[in-house]
């Protein structure tokens, strides 16, 4: 295969991706309306601000691909972030505290997954409960007050994950792309990924094809939990402390990113690249409205309108094809 | 009613070309043809779902044009679509009168009248269904009857039935035949689309044959016969319809002893490698339930199953597959394929572990070559292995479903109604495939409600009734009559 045909098929994929077109349009409009938008500093800023939502949303994509939903990711972010902060404050190095809080997030997701798979309760209900319980646990754990990551070398090292730079680019951006490559590989190049699609496409078919449907379901919620925890680490590191009410309504931004990215809430159809683009659409929109000085109240309305528009375009192109 | 020069294209591909069709009052016309020949499209043009690009429709001497199904309905044309068009969560009665609910003087729904009339319609169809039952709790055959009741409730002059008997048992089909006879006597015109040739000759006055979107024959059924019809449909002569090969039966690979499971009361049998063991019986006799218990999809209560002499207890189809037993379900749309996923993804789903390296990474080249191999070997007609499975015709979908099941090289293959909704040409290819499995020394359990097919392909036939084995026949002494008698047998618990 030559480089030219590779490029051509990559181009085709981008053009076919409605979310990507929407993103380009949004970037063009933003650039036209403000000179401050298309500067390297601001673009890096957008990417950094997007990274947290993108990391959560990529995890949630797995869940939605199985026709599930996860409303608990915001709360999981808060509790895992609090764990990370207190571990760091007690002098635990990042290479221990970060995997530790990710494992905690995965475990929280796994519990939801177990109830969805074996308890046969609707994912919406299970994760709504998880959202409440985990948020409560975060308040109990932090006693309702922020937990500082403290000072010293260990805290500095941890802080780098949220506030640091490498080669002029913020660390969270690297983390976002690392998660993207990992998720993309898993979804498109492993048996597990194929099974995720199959379970969402038709559970009965998946089971008769010898797929352990329950195992897949538990796994996707664990993945969503792990991603939310990583986002919690990044947020905590950046702020230097964990807030008990961090990540409120983040689950809605994550779901919006997934949906804008063209993943079907009915399961079985969607791409991780779409989710990344969807998160960027939300990020660019927030940034542009800020630069233009639109009040935060109107921002919410504008955001809703854009999400609706993006999904409308996607559903129309789906039905016409 | 007459259709003249009807033409219809989809995306530049002509599906119907210059089709003339005449329909007489009180007559029943059979519309025959392979899948994809344009039968359903023609009927959709007739019923206003699609609009013809060319040609005219005359109704009682007047030219008519239907822009919507509603207009066709108002003109007295009712169609029973191939796909069930029922809302599963609503009751049978609500479905029958959906959109045309009888109202009280207050403008609210007149439930008593609705259910009373629904009950009367179902009674006419000899269906002991309570019209308040939710459709999701009815069998597929009963759902089809509800659909037919809905068409009757329209009091239409012209009724089109698109493969109505596909999901019906023989008993239900007989009921339908009686209903059809009374409709004809009442001067209604009927169109029947079916793959079952015997029905054409039993029920219809005229037959029209479509091939590749063109009408190749129309005439009285009395002047035709099954072989000639097949020839017209396929455009070539078919050799014998059931290409039977004698078995080279090997060792016993599957032994089932006193199997009890939901819907299965007590079944025992054994099957050999290189043998096709047929299962006959009426719908609800426990055949599908037996399959699902065997493959591990539903738990069995008691009984023993041995594969290669080793006792097994599958709690999931995954375990069944590991032991070399695969089940190809009857309902390929709901349990056979993920319809909106690609053909390739569907095909390799079951055998995926074989294409994976460390970390579960898929070896795409190896996967693709297996997929291409099976597409060629099973002669699956498609333009691209990445096209969604739902874009294929029924026969090709079924072949994909078979390829998916056979890719992991199982030793025991359970085929549940493998030719349902499949045209004559593809049917034959599936028969040849079954023979190939036999040659390769696989043990095939074949469930079929089409008796000639069952007799034509099986080495041995077990008949089930009420979850029990009510008869066993060797190939040589199996006849339709004997199987019917055994199937209708009101089983009493077997004496041991």
TrEMBL record, chain A:
PANTHER family, per database record: ABC TRANSPORTER PERMEASE PROTEIN YPHD-RELATED, ABC TRANSPORTER PERMEASE PROTEIN YPHD-RELATED-RELATED
InterPro entries: ABC_transp_permease
Transmembrane segments: 50-69, 102-118, 164-187, 218-240, 272-291
Protein name stated in the entry: Ribose ABC transporter membrane protein
Subcellular location as annotated: Cell inner membrane
Entry's Gene Ontology molecular function annotations: transmembrane transporter activity
Family: Belongs to the binding-protein-dependent transport system permease family. AraH/RbsC subfamily.
Domain of life: Bacteria
Originating organism: Halomonas ventosae
TrEMBL record, chain B:
Mode of membrane association: Peripheral membrane protein
Domain ABC transporter: 1-237, 247-491
Subcellular location(s) per record: Cell membrane
Gene Ontology cellular component list: plasma membrane
Family annotation (Pfam families): ABC_tran
Segment forming the signal sequence: none
Entry's Gene Ontology molecular function annotations: ATP binding; ATP hydrolysis activity
Entry-linked Gene3D superfamilies: P-loop containing nucleotide triphosphate hydrolases
TM annotation in the entry: none
Keyword Ribonucleoprotein carried by entry: no
Domain of life, per lineage: Bacteria
Alphabetized UniProt keyword annotations: ATP-binding, Cell membrane, Membrane, Nucleotide-binding, Repeat, Sugar transport, Translocase, Transport
Descriptive protein name: Ribose transport system ATP-binding protein
Species this chain originates from: Halomonas ventosae
């Amino acid at each position: 295969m030559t480089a030219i045909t590779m490029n051509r098929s990559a181009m085709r994929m981008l053009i076919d991706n409605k979310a990507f077109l929407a993103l380009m349009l949004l970037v063009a409009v933003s650039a036209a309306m403000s000179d401050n938008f298309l500067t390297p500093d601001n673009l890096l800023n957008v990417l950094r601000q997007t990274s947290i939502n993108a990391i959560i949303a990529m995890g949630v994509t797995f869940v939605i691909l199985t026709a599930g939903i996860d409303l608990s990711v915001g709360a999981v972010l808060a509790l895992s972030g609090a764990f990370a902060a207190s571990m760091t404050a007690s002098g635990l190095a990042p290479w221990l505290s970060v995997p530790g809080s990710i494992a905690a997030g995965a475990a929280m997701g796994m519990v939801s997954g177990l109830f969805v798979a074996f308890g046969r309760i609707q994912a919406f209900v299970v994760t709504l409960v998880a959202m409440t319980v985990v948020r409560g646990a975060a308040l109990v754990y932090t006693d309702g007050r922020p937990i500082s990551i403290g000072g010293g070398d260990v805290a500095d090292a941890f802080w780098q994950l949220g506030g640091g730079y490498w080669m002029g680019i913020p660390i969270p951006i690297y983390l976002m792309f690392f998660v993207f490559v990992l998720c993309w590989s898993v979804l498109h190049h492993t048996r597990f990924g194929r099974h995720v699609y199959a379970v969402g496409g038709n559970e009965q078919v998946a089971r008769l094809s010898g797929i352990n449907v329950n195992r897949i379901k538990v796994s996707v919620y664990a993945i969503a939990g792990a991603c939310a925890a990583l986002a919690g680490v990044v947020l905590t590191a950046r702020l230097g402390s964990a807030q008990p009410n961090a990540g409120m309504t983040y689950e809605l931004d994550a779901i919006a990113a997934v949906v804008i990215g063209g993943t079907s809430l009915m399961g079985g159809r969607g791409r991780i690249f779409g989710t990344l683009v969807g998160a960027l659409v939300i990020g660019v929109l927030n940034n542009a409205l800020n630069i233009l000085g639109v009040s935060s109240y109107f921002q919410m309305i504008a955001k809703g309108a854009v999400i609706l528009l993006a999904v409308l375009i996607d559903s129309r192109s789906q039905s016409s094809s | 009613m007459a259709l003249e020069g009807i033409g219809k294209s989809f995306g530049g591909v002509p599906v119907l070309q210059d089709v003339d069709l005449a329909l007489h009052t009180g007559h029943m016309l059979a519309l025959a043809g392979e899948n994809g020949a344009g039968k359903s499209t023609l009927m959709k043009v007739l019923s206003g779902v699609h609009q013809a690009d060319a040609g005219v429709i005359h109704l009682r001497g007047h030219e008519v044009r239907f822009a919507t199904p509603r207009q066709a309905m108002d003109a007295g044309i009712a169609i029973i679509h191939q796909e069930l068009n029922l809302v599963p969560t609503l009751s049978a009665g609500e479905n029958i009168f959906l959109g045309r609910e009888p109202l009280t003087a207050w403008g609210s729904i007149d439930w008593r009248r609705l259910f009373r009339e629904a009950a009367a319609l179902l009674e006419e169809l000899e269906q002991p269904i309570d019209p308040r039952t939710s459709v999701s709790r009815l069998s597929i055959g009963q759902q089809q009857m509800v659909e037919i009741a809905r068409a009757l409730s329209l009091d239409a002059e012209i009724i089109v039935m698109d493969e109505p008997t596909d999901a019906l048992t023989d008993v239900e089909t007989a009921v339908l035949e009686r209903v059809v006879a009374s409709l004809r006597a009442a001067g209604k015109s009927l169109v029947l689309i079916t793959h079952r040739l015997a029905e054409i000759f039993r029920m219809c006055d005229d037959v029209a044959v479509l091939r590749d979107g063109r009408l190749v024959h129309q005439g009285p059924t009395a002047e035709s016969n099954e072989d000639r019809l097949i020839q017209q449909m396929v455009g070539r002569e078919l050799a014998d319809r059931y290409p039977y090969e004698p078995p080279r039966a090997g060792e016993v690979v599957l032994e089932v002893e006193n199997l009890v499971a939901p819907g299965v009361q007590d079944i025992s049998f054994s099957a050999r490698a290189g043998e096709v063991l047929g299962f006959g019986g009426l719908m609800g006799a426990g055949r599908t339930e037996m399959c699902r218990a065997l493959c591990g999809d539903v738990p069995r209560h008691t009984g023993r199953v041995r594969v290669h002499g080793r006792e097994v207890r599958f709690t999931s189809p995954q375990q069944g597959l590991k032991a070399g037993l695969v089940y190809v379900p009857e309902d390929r749309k709901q349990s056979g394929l993920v319809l909106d996923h690609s053909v390739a993804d569907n095909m390799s789903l079951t055998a995926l572990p074989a294409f994976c390296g460390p970390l579960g990474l898929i070896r795409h080249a190896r996967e693709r070559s297996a997929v291409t191999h099976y597409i060629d070997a099973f002669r699956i007609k498609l333009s691209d292995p990445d096209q969604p499975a739902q874009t294929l015709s029924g026969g090709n979908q079924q072949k994909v479903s078979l390829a998916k099941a056979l890719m992991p090289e199982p030793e025991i293959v359970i085929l549940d109604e493998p030719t349902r909704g499949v045209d004559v040409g593809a049917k034959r290819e599936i028969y040849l495939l079954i023979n190939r499995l036999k040659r390769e020394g696989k043990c095939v359990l074949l469930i079929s409600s089409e008796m000639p097919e069952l007799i034509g392909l099986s080495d041995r036939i077990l008949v089930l009734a009420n979850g029990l084995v009510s008869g066993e026949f060797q190939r040589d002494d199996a006849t339709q009559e004997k199987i019917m008698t055994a199937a209708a047998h009101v089983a009493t618990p077997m004496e041991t």
